[in-house]
Amino acid sequence: MSRRVVITGVGVLAPGGVGVKNFWSLLSEGRTATRGITFFDPSPYRSQVAAEIDFDPEFHGLGPQQIRRMDRAAQFAVVAAREAVASSGLDLSSTDPARVGVTIGSAVGATMSLDQEYRVVSDDGRLDLVDHQYATPHLYDYFVPSSFAAEVAWEVGAGGSTTVVSTGCTSGLDSVGHAVELIREGSADTMIAGATDAPISPITMACFDAIKATTPRKDDPEHASRPFDATRNGFVLGEGAAVFVLEELGAARRRGAHIYAEIAGFASRCNAFHMTGLRADGRELSEAISTAMAEARMAPGQLDYINAHGSGTKQNDRHETAAFKTSLGQDAYRLPISSIKSMVGHSLGAIGSIEIAASVLAMENNVVPPTANLHTPDPDCDLDYVPLTARDWKTDAVLSVGSGFGGFQSAMVLARPDRSEG
Question: In this structure, are 93 and 207 located in the same domain?
Answer without folding.
Answer: yes
